[in-house]
Hints:
Layout: H1 5-10, H2 12-27, E1 29-30, H3 40-46, E2 57-58, E3 61-62, H4 68-85, E4 89-91, H5 97-108, E5 114-118, H6 134-138, E6 140-144, H7 155-165, E7 169-172, H8 183-192, E8 196-200, H9 205-209, E9 222-226, E10 237-241, H10 246-257, H11 263-275, H12 279-301, E11 305-306, E12 315-319, H13 327-337, E13 339-340, E14 342-344, E15 358-362, H14 364-368, H15 373-388, H16 393-408
Parallel strand pairs: 1-13, 5-6, 5-7, 7-8, 8-9
Antiparallel strand pairs: 2-3, 4-10, 9-10, 11-12, 12-15, 14-15
Helix pairs in contact: 3-11, 4-11, 5-10, 7-8, 12-15, 15-16
The structure holds D-serine.
Amino acid sequence: xxxxxxxxxxxxxxxxxxxxxxxxxxxxxxxxxxxxxxxxxxxxxxxxxxxxxxxxxxxxxxxxxxxxxxxxxxxxxxxxxxxxxxxxxxxxxxxxxxxxxxxxxxxxxxxxxxxxxxxxxxxxxxxxxxxxxxxxxxxxxxxxxxxxxxxxxxxxxxxxxxxxxxxxxxxxxxxxxxxxxxxxxxxxxxxxxxxxxxxxxxxxxxxxxxxxxxxxxxxxxxxxxxxxxxxxxxxxxxxxxxxxxxxxxxxxxxxxxxxxxxxxxxxxxxxxxxxxxxxxxxxxxxxxxxxxxxxxxxxxxxxxxxxxxxxxxxxxxxxxxxxxxxxxxxxxxxxxxxxxxxxxxxxxxxxxxxxxxxxxxxxxxxxxxxxxxxxxxxxxxxxxxxxxxxxxxxxxxxxxxxxxxxxxxxxxxxxxxxxx
Length: 420
Ligand code: DSN
């Protein structure tokens, strides 16, 4: 690859690993719901000389000299994030979505404070209070979940828990939930107990930007996100908040949660926000959802159960019990044929998180490569065939060739990289 010319000269061992991963991404059918392919300007910015500068603080109030130029970039990024999401204040410094959440907690919580968050096993995120994560160790998170019948967020449970525990903060948002969230309802619950309200929209940020899904920004005190998932860009995070929290958030980010900023990544985010304002991006976001809905429909026709009966966004949870399979079995068999998904617990899963009864499938990455509903039909059929032939390697080997042929029709960065 032209862009890795020096790596090839200086470290052939490492170069070969990148080359191998390029080949995997080139022909593989990528359906991990948190993945996307960053546009080439983002690859360039993430590899740019901006990585060389050290900054701490915010534009105009720095702890190092020589920040005049870089301040222009950060101001531009903040302004674009505010415009894109109609937010009062933005901070694009968080290194990741987890860091973005840490920055908000650092802004308004003290260790031991009580917080409500969606449990990981019903679709939440590690940083929403899991015991293995800093959030669950430093704060008193009370988990809420889903209604067993509808498999939708149990808003009555949130209200009951809020009244019982009087939390300082309620966190909404998920990494494995396929339905729209009623932000206004949770906001009203939060305000009734005098709690702050934060939404982690990491998974759906791109769909919100494109107005394919409703925005949490009018309702939430803080909104966190990554730029990597449906925003399809830089590997990092950011926070939006009401102006009255701006100072608290900036101080909680630096020096509260992070040291010097990653300016090359912040520049990539800045491009990301501009790209997400284009009609091309909006069209992509609409197609992501159309593809997910088509794939869910095909899988249902093939006898899989889709949690909650369908999807409003880029992902779906597939219950494999009707096929008498576990998540780990199907994940492995799909990986063997070249389709990447992840095993995932379904609501009220009788299996452990290591085995699981489900898989999570997302359509972001393949939509970026140009796939449409007809391709989703083909992928749905292939997934069903793999499930029916889970250990029949003669059949799986034939399917592998079909997957490779399909993947090769949707190349990665066509015309950008020189061939190996
Ligand atoms: N939270 C993980 C996921 O959803 O896959 C990583 O972002």
